[in-house]
Design a protein that fits this description.
The protein has 348 residues and is mainly beta. The chain has no helices and 30 strands. The protein has one domain: YVTN repeat-like/Quinoprotein amine dehydrogenase (Methylamine Dehydrogenase, Chain H), CATH 2.130.10. The N terminus and C terminus are likely disordered.
């Protein structure tokens, strides 16, 4: 990939004026774009294009780059889109070649490389974003390897495999599959606690959430969570470390007590529908809440409703809705950046 310098956008007698800090990036699966939302105003300030099926987004630790997995639609996708957050623009596309249906993605420390699942290859990829190359492809040993979590301290990745209903544990530096364990039918969402000990996996077809010991993949608890549980995220320790689970069919948010390993509270969050989703009849009648993004402070939570074309902002103190942020068609993936888009105006 040829690196595109942000300074190119300043040529031609322009001046960059920053908006207030904090940006939410939202992938619009049905229209191949990303809505970039200024969180101070709540308005969309840019909508760069991607390749078909932008399913997940990762933002670098410095907040400057967003990398989007292009899963594809009818035809399998095999690319990543690179967006410069401050410019609000797509700057490059990485071709993944034979590694089709890229989905889950996380940045590794150093802001240069990402881990990406490739469902079509049953693999976890290490991709150098700056050079635009796949450095390594590690077999997951399971089917439909979808979402992932990463422990940068232990340099281990955990992959949820929908087709096999399992979790794969991978040694990233060594490029080897260490183990896989049964989780439940339709294992999809996955989240790791900040201390690297608790691994949470949603089993959408079993209506359950499994808690694993991340060190050895021993099962510690299985928690009933009805309504097609599809995503899980862990709140910061200062916000109690609770686990949030969206249920796409029932339109609910479950708040899990991590110590008791039980549902503490269930909140109805369903919105008015705008259209359908790729999940079809399995979630009929719901606004289909899927993606979850938590503010670093832990005081706000954003939920993407794929059938409502909107992101719901919740106050984490009482789980009430504070705002509704409009997006493109079928939002799902989200990522937070502490940076803002710089609006360009002509110099006098």
């Amino acid at each position: 990939m040829k690196r595109v310098c942000s300074l190119l956008l300043l040529l031609g007698a322009t001046l960059a004026l920053p908006l207030s800090a904090e940006t939410l990036l939202v992938g619009n699966k049905a229209e191949a774009s990303v809505s970039i939302i200024d969180l101070a105003s709540g308005r969309e300030v840019a909508r760069p294009k991607t390749q078909p099926g932008p399913h997940e987004i990762a933002v670098s630790g410095d907040g400057k780059l967003a990398v989007v997995t292009n899963y594809g639609a009818e035809e399998p996708g095999n690319s990543l889109t690179i967006i410069e957050v401050e410019q609000g623009q797509t700057v490059a596309t990485i071709d993944l070649g034979e590694y089709t249906r890229p989905h889950g993605i996380v940045f590794m420390p150093g802001n240069r490389k990402v881990l990406v699942t490739a469902e079509g290859a049953r693999a976890l990829l290490v991709v150098d974003v700056w050079d635009g190359v796949v450095e390594k492809a590690i077999p997951t040993g399971q089917d439909t390897s979808h979402m992932l979590a990463y422990d940068p301290t232990g340099k281990r990745a955990f992959v949820a495999n929908i087709g096999s209903g399992s979790v794969s544990l991978i040694n990233v530096p060594g490029g080897e599959l260490l183990a896989f364990r049964r989780s439940g039918a339709g294992a999809e969402g996955i989240a790791l606690s900040e201390n690297g000990r608790d691994l949470w996996v949603t089993n959408r077809a079993d209506d359950s959430l499994t808690l694993f010991d991340a060190l050895n993949l021993d099962t510690r608890a299985t928690i009933p969570v009805p309504g097609f549980p599809i995503r899980a995220e862990v709140m910061p320790p200062r916000a109690g470390g609770r686990v949030l689970v969206t249920s796409a069919r029932s339109g609910e948010l479950s708040i899990i007590d991590p110590v008791k390993a039980e549902v503490e509270q269930t909140v109805m969050i369903s919105l008015e529908q705008e259209g359908g989703t790729i999940l079809g009849d399995r979630v009929a009648g719901s606004s289909v809440p899927i993606g979850i993004e938590i503010a670093p402070s832990g005081d706000r939570v954003w939920i993407a409703h794929a059938a409502a074309d909107a992101v719901q902002e919740l106050n984490a103190a009482d789980w009430t809705q504070t705002r509704l942020l409009k997006t493109g068609d079928e939002p799902d993936a989200m990522a937070y950046s502490p940076l803002s888009v710089r609006m360009l105006v002509e110099s006098q």
